[in-house]
Amino acid sequence: MRALTWHGKRDVQVDTVPDPQIREPTDILVKITSTGICGSDLHLYEVLGPFLDVGDILGHEPMGVVEEVGSAVSALSPGDRVVVPFNVSCGECWMCSRGLHSQCETTQVRDRGMGASLFGYTKLYGQVPGGQAEYLRVPFGNTLPVKVPHGPPDERYVYLSDVLPTAWQAVAYADIPAGGSVTVLGLGPIGDMAARIALHQGASQVIGVDLVPERLARARSRSVHTLDVDELGSDVGDEVRRLTGGRGTDAVIEAVGMEAHGAPGVKAAQQLVGLLPDALAEKLMERVGVDRMTAFHTAIDAVRRGGTISVVGVYGGAMDPLPLLTMFDKQIQLRMGQANVRHWVDDILPLLTDADPLGVQGFATHQLPLEDGPQAYKTFQAKEDGMIKTLLVP
């Protein structure tokens, strides 16, 4: 089959690789019909190379049609249409039974001290082959895949793999009071969708912060009050307070993470680590890695006293300095973590109807053949051609 594979920093290629096979009685094989490129895939493209091997298949936002099922699979049959959550979660362990699918005890990567395995996402998360490919082996066929109806286009459902549940959890963790306010830092796919969900759930004021003109315009078109970082610089918090009677918003959703602009010294250090041999680079990143914390510090500044920060942007540093005095003084509540995809599916599915209140149809700015994946990564990294969300079609 053809699959998009990692070959080095800023080097992904579409290769011919062996077809996946049923290995366990509960496995299924899915013929992929659409698969997304996620902002966190760019971390693999740019920063997390020490945790990848040449030939690793990337991607964690797939959907498709069941091609084959293992002997113990009763919930699905060949021909069924499914979305595959990015958590590799069993659905039955102690953690999964409490809605913490990202902490699944069956697939935790214990030798790395990490949570549940993820599709297409490095040795830190199990080195499981990903979904930017023609076919995907999916374990836990009775409990992990999300069965969806035939008929509507893939774009109506594919975001159940990651974008929708990640943004939904971000809003849930933000705990915005009824009729309250929220600032969303970063208007990429997750931040954009989180802003839509907050408005749908009744937030009276949603402020979106970014520096990419296309992202700002897209959010404005859906009634988000946008702020341009290039114009405001370090004054984002001041402007948020001006818009909220001097207090700041009730909540802040931090949807940027380690890729925040600013802190050039940290960026240089990340790049230098990427030049080291993998064994040494792994140890440095796991023990002394530091992220660019610009967005997180902005969140602390912009949230009102007694408010909540919901962190959904991906961080990887082991020694990130936090302004704990300020956080304590402001009585900030902080929630974060990988999305528990399967936990939120039942809440989201009713919204993927003909009404489409979240605007999932047309959410992708680009739909491209899988063979164009390497160029799509390059374009997405450079924030060119208005690319905000891309779906690849094998």
Present the secondary structure layout.
Blueprint: E1 2-8, E2 11-16, E3 28-37, H1 41-46, E4 62-69, E5 81-83, H2 94-97, E6 135-138, E7 146-148, H3 163-174, E8 181-185, H4 189-200, E9 205-210, H5 213-220, E10 225-228, H6 229-232, H7 236-243, E11 249-254, H8 264-273, H9 278-288, H10 294-302, E12 303-311, H11 324-329, E13 333-336, H12 341-348, E14 366-369, H13 373-382, E15 390-393
Helix pairs in contact: 3-4, 3-12, 7-10
In a few lines, what is going on in this structure?
Helix content is 27%, strand content 21%. The chain has 13 helices and 15 strands.
Characterization of this structure:
With 394 residues, the protein is of the alpha/beta class. The chain has 13 helices and 15 strands. The protein has helices spanning 41-46, 94-97, 163-174, 189-200, 213-220, 229-232, 236-243, 264-273, 278-288, 294-302, 324-329, 341-348, 373-382, and strands at residues 2-8, 11-16, 28-37, 62-69, 81-83, 135-138, 146-148, 181-185, 205-210, 225-228, 249-254, 303-311, 333-336, 366-369, 390-393. The strands form 3 sheets. Strands 3, 4, 5, 6, 7, 14 and 15 form a 7-stranded mixed sheet that branches. Strands 10-9-8-11-12-13 form a 6-stranded parallel sheet, with helices on both faces. Helix 3 crosses helix 4 (189-200) and helix 3 (163-174) crosses helix 12. The chain is globular, with a radius of gyration of 20 Å. The N and C termini lie close together (10 Å). The model has no long low-confidence stretch (mean pLDDT 91).
